[in-house]
Amino acid sequence: MEQRDALLTVQQATAKKGLSFRGLVKVFYMPSAFFAELKDHPKILIPYMVIAVLLFCFFAITADIIYNMQVSSPQFQELMRRAGMTPQMERSMRYQILIGGPIVRLLAPLIAAVLGMFWGNFVFAGKTRFKQLLSVMLYGEIIYRLGMIAVLPLVLAKKSMLVSLSLGVLAASQGQGSILYLALSKIDLFLIWEIIAIGIGLSITYGVPRNKGYRLSVLSMGMLSILHVVFSAVGKLIF
Fold it and tell me: pTM for this one?
């Protein structure tokens, strides 16, 4: 009996240890079963590292395309007409793309977890730990970031960042700075998939019906997309 209990303990420990890596795959095709395991054993380091690697690789590969699109924008052309382009400005822009771009996006799951805790714990009077929420957001974000890599061949082929699996293609002619393009780009296949997966995770984490989990997902991770469009629109009105 003791040997069997010891063997069971070892097997459970091994399963928990491999959960971080198994989750990178299971979140795509078995989200309910995976998040049920993740609830009691939240993982942070591995998904965050994978997202960071995907982001830095993406921005390193597309840095020239992003830079060329930025310098060709009407706003930047007007800035160059007034002040001119210096080597320091060019280096600064490239550093912002290579380093600033990934770092800003790495904050998204963290902010989404804060929003999730606000809505779930305080507004809807649920109870869960921040680590559990962050873990759900990170594994959901894996879906969206792999979608980003999936369209990379098209981005490189067209040498344009206006390539996606979203309705943004309908307004691509208006440019990346267009509010219509920005809004439509949020109706994205992988973003919707991410929000659904996170909704499943939140419903399991909080022990609430699935539709309430979806609502929490929209109010947390989905809210970041909504706020991005709103702040961009306000910025255009002000400036």
Answer: 0.89
